[in-house]
Amino acid sequence: MKPTRENWSSRIGIIMAVSGSAIGLGNFLRFPTQVVENGGGAFMIPYFTAFLLLGIPLSFAEWTLGRYGGQYGYGSTPGVFHLISGKQWAKYLGIFGLFVPLVISFYYLLIESWCLAYAFFSIMGMYRSISNTADLKDFLQEFQNLVPPEQLPNFPWQLVFFFITFFVNYWIVSRGISAGIEKLSRFGMPILFLLALVLLVRVFTLPAHPNAPDQTVMNGLGFLWNPDFSKLSDVNVWLAAAGQIFFTLSVGMGAILAYSSYLKKEDDVAHSALSAASTNEFAEVILGASIMIPATFVFLGAIGAAEVVKSGSFNLGFVIMPMIFNQLPLGNFIGFTWFALLFLAGITSSVSLIQPILTFLQDEIGLNRKKAILIVGSITLVVSFTLKRTLALGTLDQFDFWGGTFLPVVSGFIMVIMFGWVFGAKEGWEELNRASKIQVPKLFVLIIQYITPLYLGIMLFLWIKKNIPTIVMDDIVDLQVWKATLIARGGLIVLGIILVILIYIAGKNYTPKTKQHKG
Length: 519
Known about the structure:
Blueprint: H1 11-22, H2 25-37, H3 44-70, H4 77-85, H5 90-93, H6 96-123, H7 133-143, H8 157-174, H9 177-204, H10 217-225, H11 235-249, H12 255-260, H13 270-310, H14 313-325, H15 331-365, H16 369-389, H17 395-433, H18 443-466, H19 468-471, H20 479-508
Helix pairs in contact: 1-9, 1-13, 1-15, 2-11, 2-13, 3-4, 3-11, 3-13, 3-17, 3-18, 6-8, 6-15, 6-16, 6-17, 7-14, 8-9, 8-15, 8-16, 9-13, 9-15, 10-13, 13-14, 14-15, 15-16, 17-18
């Protein structure tokens, strides 16, 4: 007899939680750079195309499968895939719904801890006296233990803030769905939006640069949004847009499925899915794009802003933005607001990345939540700490390449096939609309069965073709980096093998009986 599963205490709670899962560091760091690098306003054409044909259909599918599986006590992709098919082999396809969020959580916690540390550094004025980007970059590398400390006091800052971040995350998930994750989201999300609005108002009240009258906020928005339609013929732009949709909506990764499995039978999934996706798009397109790039444009101009964007989101968020804060009145407070915003966006996402494996261990293996957290937390602590120590060798990049870029698309492709062809698109559409306040058009059946899989298949093929040198390690010339890459990939393979064994153990005790879906 399975223990009674938890439920969300309110509809707004689940919407806030799923929105929090989606609204993360990518909204405020990754998205603005993607827009500038890929055609400005023209990027929004492939972006919204991917949103409509990939993001929304996958979101509907994941919410629906999660609620359906939760009625029978299954909230992980292996359990739900087994349930809807009644076939032993199907549960193994669900491995990506455990592997992807777990791998992302390993390095996401590390980056999240940087945001918390920089919020502290900001309010304490610890980088206030640094006036140029070179020294601020050194400050970041000193914090990351990549170079000996000179400007930053000799203290294990990264270690301290990593442990704080780690324990806060696992304390929240230890309290459960309603008392932990839902409470975090109900309080954290409004605060996040308030901080974002404070920053937005401050950016929009910035005067023109005193030595360059054309460097204004409005021209900065023009720099961000003016379309370069020639970019639309570049397949890489379409790949970037599809990747951003996966990254920003957290679709296809198993996190939404795990969350929605704690819904009640008559909870509305169609309206909730659209509400969560819309909330994320507001945070990304309206807030995220309007804070960082216009501020950078005012202080550095078009050429400087373009060069900064190419330097990567870490330098943009942790080097350029602090430099800008140092030139503003109340710069310490503004810097604190920026990094507190990033930390809140990070933690509402990271708890969602931890939940799928916890749900699996509880539902499929039969562990109680305390034991599941102890196991997952111990593994996370070891792997994240190793990534921290090997940062200079690119191990974090390897985890992001496989766990955060390539495999989410694979997982999404499997998810849409399982929903459209195994569960059945027509039956899925009916399940989606059950108890819904809105009626999803039947066109959804055609999209989820044919258009979305075709779109994903083409994107996956082109993405693999583009990244063959990285996949086979032809682009690595340094021997130490090559060895570290090999070790990182070996670790990922070991993790995959462990998950396969756990899925096998779980499947031996699985008896769908008459509850399985007949598509």
